[in-house]
Amino acid sequence: MLIEHIAMYVNDLESAKDFFIKYFGGKSNDCYHNKTTGFRSYFISFDNGARLELMNKPDVINKDSSTEQTGYTHIAFSVGSKEKVDELTDSFKSEGYTIRSGPRNTGDGYYESCIVAIEGNLIEITI
Description:
- The protein is built from two helices and nine strands.
- It has helices spanning 13-24, 82-94; strands spanning 6-9, 27-28, 32-33, 40-45, 51-56, 74-78, 98-105, 111-117, 121-126.
- The chain starts with 5 loop residues before the first strand and ends with a strand.
């Protein structure tokens, strides 16, 4: 079995698309736009075949992301090495992103950092 894609609603579709292209080497398709509903989306594809659908629709409400809650909590990207985790985390920090944790070794054997990006969503960077 294979997860075909993961999707997330965002308010600023273009900025979200640019983020995943710039930092994680994603490649985007052309924007899909349903003129009847106002729905727009991009599929961002990554080298290993994983895909992320970024979506926007005028009547979607914002959830309170200030507290931990059940449901999907973050997207994790494997960048291949401890050095790359450190380098990318430093880039995010220098560009003003909030570093929530790390880089660090976790109790379950990961080396990772976690940043707050894309409208408050968490992005984990790991080996």
